[in-house]
Specification:
Layout: E1 2-3, H1 6-10, E2 19-32, E3 36-42, E4 50-55, E5 73-82, E6 90-101, H2 118-123, H3 132-154, E7 158-159, E8 165-166, E9 178-179, E10 206-208, H4 213-223, E11 225-233, E12 246-255, H5 259-280, H6 282-292, H7 296-305, E13 309-312, H8 313-323, H9 339-349, E14 354-357, E15 379-384, E16 388-396, H10 400-409, H11 418-425, E17 431-437, H12 438-446
Parallel strand pairs: 1-2, 4-6, 7-11, 13-14
Antiparallel strand pairs: 2-3, 2-5, 3-4, 5-6, 8-10, 9-10, 11-12, 12-17, 14-15, 15-16, 16-17
Bound molecules: 4-amino-1,4-dioxobutan-2-aminium adenosine-5'-monophosphate and magnesium ion.
Magnesium ion is lined by residues 381, 389, 392.
Length: 466
C-alpha cells in the first residue's frame, strides 16, 4: 500500500477512493458511544492534520484504539475519501490502525492541546516541536535557510565553510568561549606562573568563533564573491530577547564592493528571501498571525514593497535629539545607539526597515574602512521594527598602514593578525561584507518576539540543558 505524507495528500495530487497509508501522531481524538473514533493525526509535513475515522469493527478497536491519547504514534491504512466536513478536505476510513508508541502516563504528558506559555515550552524544548506553533516556526526556518543559499547561488556566490575553532577574536573584542582539553583540576603552569597554553591541544589559546568574517575575507580576495553560513558563539552576559550564546550567522564578503553595493545587496537579499518565504510558507505564517494576533502578512507585504530608508549615523542622532525623548544622553554623537534608540527610529519615526551608515569609528571594529574624515567608518547597520539590528557590515580597511593604526588604536596585537594583514600586503583589493543574524531575521518574519522561541534548542546564559 502506498505511503503518503499529509502534505502530499493536501497537495491534491492523490485520487480519492484509493487505499493509502499514513504515519504520524495523534493530535486529538474523540470516541463516540456509537462505536466510532475520530482521530486528528499530524506528521509535521505541514500544519494540516488528517482525520482518521476508525470504526469499532477494527480488530484492535476496544483493546487499543479506544485507549489512544494525544501524542501516541500510529500507522494507518485505509481508503482516502473526500470529507463531508467543510473544514477539512479529506479523511481516511481506516481498514487497519497499528499502534506504534503509546504515551506512558497520559495525565503527565507535557504537551496537551491547551495553549502553553513560551516559557513553559522552552522548559520542554525536546517536546515542543510537537506543537503547531514550533512546527510552523521549524518549517519556516527550513525554507528561509534553503532560500538564502539559493539566493547566493543565483548571484554567483560560492559557499565557504569557515572554522568554528579559532585563536583570533575576529571582532577584536567581546567575550569568547574557550576551547581546551586541559584537566581543570590540573592546569599546566609556565615559568611566570601563568597558564601554559603551549601544552593545550592547539598549542595556543583557542576559542569558539564569534564571526567567520576574517577567514571569509581570505577567500573573497581570491574567489571575489563568497559567503558562509554557520553557528557563531558569543559569551556575552546579555539576557535579552535578541541575544543567544549560540546562533547562526550568514556572512557575505565581496571583492571590489562599496558600501552602496553592500546596501543594495542586503536589501535585495532580504526582499528576495522574505518574498519566497511568504509565498512558500503562507499557511504557517497565517497560522502564526492568528496565534500571535498580529498582522504578519501585511507587515511583510509592506516590507517587500517599500524601499528601506538609508540614513547617516549623524542624521539618526539629530532625529533622536529632536524627538525630545532622549535628552539625557543623546547630546553628542559620541553616543552609541542603544536598543531603545533603534526602536524609536524604526518603530516610531521611519516605521520601516532602516539602514544607518557611517558610525563613529570608536563604536565599530578595527577592520572597518576609515572614511576620509578620519572620524567615521564605512559601516552599515540594518534595523527592522520590533527586532532592531538584524544585519551589520562594512567596507573593509584594505590599506595596510591604516589597518595597522586601527589595530593598535583598538589595543590589539598586530602579530596575532599576521595572516589577515598578509591579505593587504599581497594584491590588496577594496572589499566589503556583512553578517546577518539568522534567528533575528526569523524572529522578524514570524513576529515571534524572543529569539529563544525561534531557535530549536536555545543556548543562553545558564541554559545549555536540553
Ligand atoms: O554585528 P555583528 O557582531 O557583526 C559581525 O560579527 C561581523 N563580523 C559580520 C560581518 O560583517 N561579516 O553580528 C552580525 C549580526 C547582527 O546584526 C545580529 O543580527 C546577529 O549577527 N547577532 C546575534 N544574533 C543573536 N544573538 C547574538 N548574541 C547576536 N550577536 C549578533
Ligand atoms: Mg553589529
Amino acid at each position: 500500500m502506498n505511503m503518503f505524507s499529509i502534505f502530499n495528500i493536501h497537495e491534491n495530487k492523490i485520487d480519492t477512493n484509493k487505499y493509502i497509508s499514513v504515519k504520524g501522531w495523534i493530535k486529538n481524538r474523540r470516541h463516540l458511544k456509537s462505536g466510532v473514533t475520530f482521530i486528528d493525526m499530524y506528521d509535521g509535513s505541514c500544519l494540516n492534520t488528517l482525520q482518521i475515522v476508525a470504526h469499532c469493527s477494527l480488530p484492535n478497536y476496544y483493546e487499543e484504539i479506544e485507549n489512544l491519547t494525544t501524542g501516541c504514534s500510529i500507522v494507518v491504512s485505509g481508503k482516502l475519501v473526500k470529507s463531508p466536513k467543510i473544514k477539512q478536505l479529506y479523511e481516511i476510513q481506516a481498514k487497519k490502525i497499528k499502534v506504534i508508541g503509546n504515551i506512558k502516563d497520559p495525565s503527565k504528558y507535557p504537551i496537551t492541546s491547551k495553549k502553553h506559555t513560551f516559557e513553559y515550552l522552552r522548559q520542554n524544548s525536546h517536546l515542543r516541536p510537537r506543537t503547531n506553533f514550533i512546527g510552523a516556526i521549524s518549517r519556516i526556518r527550513s525554507c528561509l535557510f534553503y532560500t538564502l543559499h539559493q539566493f547566493f547561488c543565483k548571484k554567483g556566490y560560492y559557499w565557504i565553510p569557515v572554522p568554528i575553532i579559532t585563536s583570533l577574536n575576529s571582532e577584536g573584542g567581546g567575550e569568547m568561549f574557550r576551547v581546551s582539553t586541559f584537566d581543570f583540576s590540573n592546569i599546566p603552569i609556565d615559568n611566570f606562573l601563568k597558564t601554559n597554553f603551549k601544552k593545550d591541544f592547539f598549542g595556543r589559546e583557542s576559542f569558539l568563533s564569534v564571526s567567520g568574517q576574517l577567514n571569509l575575507e581570505a577567500y573573497a580576495c581570491a574567489l571575489s564573491k563568497v559567503y558562509s553560513f554557520g553557528p557563531i558563539f558569543r559569551a556575552e552576559n546579555s539576557n535579552t530577547s535578541r541575544h543567544l550564546a549560540e546562533f547562526w550567522m550568514l556572512e557575505v564578503e565581496s571583492a571590489f564592493f562599496t558600501l552602496k553595493d553592500l546596501m543594495d545587496l542586503s536589501e535585495s537579499m532580504l526582499k528576495d528571501v522574505v518574498g519566497t518565504v511568504l509565498e512558500t510558507c503562507f499557511i504557517d505564517i497565517k497560522f502564526l498571525q492568528n496565534v500571535l494576533n498580529i498582522d504578519i502578512v501585511n507587515r511583510l507585504e509592506k516590507f517587500l514593497s517599500k524601499k528601506f530608508f538609508r540614513i547617516e549615523y549623524k542624521e539618526a542622532i539629530s532625529i533622536l535629539k529632536k524627538s525630545g525623548k532622549f535628552s539625557d544622553n543623546i547630546l553628542s554623537s559620541e553616543i552609541n545607539l542603544s536598543s531603545e534608540h533603534e526602536k524609536y527610529l524604526v518603530e516610531k519615526y521611519f516605521k520601516l526597515p532602516t539602514i544607518i551608515i557611517n558610525y563613529p569609528k570608536s563604536f565599530k571594529a578595527f577592520y572597518m574602512k576609515l572614511n576620509e574624515n578620519n572620524e567615521t567608518v564605512a559601516s552599515m547597520d540594518l534595523l527592522v521594527p520590533s527586532v532592531g539590528e538584524i544585519l551589520g557590515g562594512s567596507e573593509r580597511e584594505e590599506n595596510l598602514e591604516i589597518l595597522d593604526k586601527r589595530i593598535s588604536e583598538c589595543g590589539l596585537n598586530k602579530k596575532s593578525y599576521w595572516w589577515y594583514r598578509d591579505l593587504r600586503k599581497y594584491g590588496t583589493v577594496p572589499h566589503s561584507g556583512f553578517g546577518l543574524g539568522f534567528e533575528r531575521l526569523l524572529s522578524y518574519i514570524t513576529g515571534v518576539k524572543n529569539v529563544r522561541d525561534v531557535s530549536p534548542f536555545p543556548r543562553t546564559v545558564r541554559n545549555s540543558n536540553i
